[in-house]
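User: Hi! I have a protein structure encoded as tokens and I'd like to know what sequence might fold into it. I'm fairly new to this, so please keep things simple.
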């Protein structure tokens, strides 16, 4: 039985004090496993011993669902033209459902299911940040990224959620695997160094192993075990996985401010430059869409120097700066 299911069942089997109900609502509202929680709540609703006929019961659930989706709150971080959804939360149904439950023994829930608060770290364009997690794992968070993690790890695993890119130096703990969840992939390790790139506006998610061993799975049952120097790429459009050997040092060169591209298209390069320098780049022509570039932009390069370097590699490409806007044609 999953921990989420244990928590929901334990809550609705007992009468709770207002403080415990508040903590349960905070856990329920948190974006982690939102779909799973809503599914479990629906199952809990269906198990209630209601006297109403099935049609009336279904209509009641539809009212609940409307309240859920009407009350969804999304924190949005605007980075130039990009909009990254940081969190989508479910409106608490505790009081609504508790009306139909005979409950008792609140102390066991308080002792067993008191949930930690969650921390949300956001890095804007043009900045990176070093984050130390409660277990001493060190995370380097790239520009334009969001990391969500508990203020203390509890349970059998150490789980964090990432949108964007980060490198992880995980503290070894064989009894408590470390798990990084993105929209597409789940990466599990015991103690190792690896990089995850999962920007919402990219067409792919990548996991690159620097040291140790990781196991990566997605929405299918397929799993991959990576060796140092291997990268797993998931194409969101085709839903195809591919594995290749890479230079792990080059993949994490962004930690020191450098940018490395290996046969990357112009649009992928533009997005990386926008994050690195906090600028907005407008490309008015489609004639460069098939160009693939291999280059390294050193950490000491300014935005102007980086754009000039790319213009030298693409014949006919013109550019102009207007403060923090760059126009390419």
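Assistant: Happy to help. Inverse folding works backwards from shape to sequence: for each of the 329 positions I chose a residue that suits the local structure. Here it is:
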């Amino acid at each position: 039985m999953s921990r989420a299911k244990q928590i929901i069942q334990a809550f609705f089997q007992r009468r709770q004090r207002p403080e415990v109900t508040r903590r349960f609502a905070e856990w329920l509202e948190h974006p982690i496993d939102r779909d799973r929680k809503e599914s479990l709540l629906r199952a809990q609703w269906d198990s209630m011993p209601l006297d109403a006929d099935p049609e009336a019961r279904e209509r009641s659930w539809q009212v609940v669902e409307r309240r859920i989706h009407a009350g969804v709150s999304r924190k949005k971080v605007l980075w130039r033209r990009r909009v990254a959804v940081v969190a989508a939360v479910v409106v608490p149904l505790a009081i609504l459902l508790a009306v139909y439950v005979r409950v008792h023994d609140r102390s066991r829930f308080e002792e067993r299911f008191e949930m930690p608060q969650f921390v949300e770290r956001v890095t804007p364009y043009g900045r990176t940040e070093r984050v130390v997690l409660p277990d001493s794992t060190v995370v380097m968070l790239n520009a334009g990224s969001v990391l969500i993690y508990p203020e203390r790890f509890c349970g059998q695993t150490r789980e964090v959620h990432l949108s964007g890119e980060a490198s992880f130096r995980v503290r070894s703990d064989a009894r408590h695997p470390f798990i990084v969840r993105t929209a597409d992939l789940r990466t599990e390790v015991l103690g190792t160094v690896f990089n995850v790139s999962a920007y919402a506006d990219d067409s792919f998610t990548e996991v690159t192993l620097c040291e140790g061993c990781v196991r990566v799975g997605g929405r299918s049952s397929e799993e991959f075990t990576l060796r140092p120097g291997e990268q797993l790429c998931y194409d969101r459009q085709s839903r195809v996985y591919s594995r290749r050997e890479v230079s792990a040092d080059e993949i994490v060169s962004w930690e020191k401010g450098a940018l490395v591209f290996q046969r990357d298209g112009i649009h992928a390069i533009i997005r990386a430059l926008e994050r690195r320098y906090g600028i907005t780049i407008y490309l008015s022509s489609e004639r460069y869409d098939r160009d693939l570039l291999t280059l390294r932009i050193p950490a000491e390069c300014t935005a102007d120097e980086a754009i000039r370097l790319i213009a030298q590699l693409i014949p006919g490409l013109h550019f102009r700066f207007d403060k923090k806007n760059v126009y390419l044609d």
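A useful reference point when you look it over: Confidence is low (pLDDT under 50) at residues 70-111. Feel free to ask if any position seems puzzling.
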